[in-house]
Amino acid sequence: MAVRTIGVAVNGVTGRMGYRQHLVRSLLPLRDEGVRLRDGTVLKVEPVLVGRNADKLKEIAERHDLARWTTDLDSALADPSVEIYFDSQVTSKHVESITRAIEAGKHVYTEKPVSETVEEALGLARLADEKGVKHGVVADKLYLPGIRKLKRLVDGGFFGRILSVRGEFGYWVFEGDWQAAQRPSWNYRAEDGGGIVSDMFCHWSYLLHDLFGRVEAVTAKAVTHVPTRWDEQGDAYTATADDAAYGIFEIENGVIAQINSSWCVRVRRDELVEFQVDGTEGSAVAGLRECFVQPRAVTPKPVWNPDLPVTHPFRDQWQQVPDNEDFDNGFKVQWTEFLRHVADGAPFPHDFLAGARGVALAAAGLRSSSEGRRVEIADVRR
């Protein structure tokens, strides 16, 4: 059995997502397990940590028995053993670093949003194609067990003609004064690329596109419910980015999606994100892990009568969709797909063009909110 090692420069590993999801739950397990390619070769990942804080990088490297770390991105990109560059920095840093990686001939995988503007995202896609390097953008929500079960229902024709989608995402993010915030402060500063529209509309773009079809128009309202927050040093700052957004998305084939996204909401749902899909032949509610269905043939016949109490809980009228497979960490699964894409030429649909669609939807959502109107979205092309 042949074994091949591939170096991955991981920039932004000291951040929450870069460390927890990408390093600890994805790359380190793949370093140990390997990725089997079509010819039987086992691909072993060797992370190279990149960042600005030498003390934090050294501590992480020692904690996980990693030999290489650096605060010099160019030196990492000059290393011939490093074939992939991964970026999980703040959004405003993506374009510069990704451009340097492409110019160095590295394949690039990045957290979303890939950039702050559609033009920048398309420019990166064109440059990567010109340089002959492969590129990808994280699309983790598609790999959640609940969404994969939902995709199984869509592909199997369970819904008949799909009519609508309703989504609820969010939770209360503490302001940072009397309890520490569970999200970084840059998320609430527009000048640093923060905002829930820029963050979550990119997710809704690939999720709606891959499950139901291309988003053709959006009507959205973005707001900043909490105007003052406290940063990691305990200093108060003005929140310049939106922390909640309420959107209506018009999808090809007439499907209408309504999704609320908020960091200012307290959860009374089964999971932090839930989507209800209604069709002529049945409905489903999918969350992070679970999915429940109600087929047409067993749909109850409710009658509106506010004078009588509900005699049968509505939740009890739904059936749970079985797993039917083992679900690994979604970030790890997509990393496996990208590694096979680089080493094996396996298909990988979540490229910079898909990332540009997400940026375009976010831009259209912000424009819709600021102008108070419906905004059509042109099909994004290179």
In brief:
The chain contains nine helices and 18 strands. The protein has 382 residues and is α/β, with parallel strands linked by helices.
Write the layout of secondary structure elements.
Blueprint: E1 3-11, H1 16-33, E2 35-36, E3 42-50, H2 54-63, E4 69-70, H3 73-78, E5 82-87, H4 94-103, E6 107-110, H5 118-131, E7 135-137, H6 145-155, E8 162-170, H7 196-211, E9 215-223, E10 228-230, E11 236-238, E12 244-251, E13 256-262, E14 273-279, E15 282-286, E16 291-295, E17 319-320, H8 330-344, H9 352-371, E18 375-376
Parallel strand pairs: 1-3, 1-5, 3-4, 5-6, 6-7, 8-13
Antiparallel strand pairs: 2-3, 8-14, 9-12, 9-18, 10-11, 12-13, 14-15, 15-16, 16-17
Helix pairs in contact: 1-8, 4-5, 5-9, 7-9
- Give the beta-strand count: 18
The end-to-end distance, rounded to whole angstroms, is: 40 Å
Derived from helix and strand composition plus strand pairing, the structural class reads: alpha/beta
Element-level helix/strand string: EHEEHEHEHEHEHEHEEEEEEEEEHHE
* Total helical elements: 9
Query: What about the largest sheet?
Result: 9 strands, mixed
Query: Strand fraction band?
Result: 15-25%
Radius of gyration: 22 Å
Q: Can you tell me about this structure?
A:
- With 382 residues, the chain is α/β, with parallel strands linked by helices.
- It has helices spanning 16-33, 54-63, 73-78, 94-103, 118-131, 145-155, 196-211, 330-344, 352-371, and strands at 3-11, 35-36, 42-50, 69-70, 82-87, 107-110, 135-137, 162-170, 215-223, 228-230, 236-238, 244-251, 256-262, 273-279, 282-286, 291-295, 319-320, 375-376.
- The strands form 3 sheets. It has a 9-stranded mixed sheet. Strands 1, 2, 3, 4, 5, 6 and 7 form a 7-stranded mixed sheet that branches. The chain has a two-stranded antiparallel ribbon with strand order 10-11.
- Strand 3 (42-50), helix 2 and strand 4 (69-70) form a beta-alpha-beta unit.
- Helix 7 crosses helix 9.
- The longest helix is centred in the last third of the chain and has 20 residues, at 352-371.
- The model has no long low-confidence stretch (mean pLDDT 96).
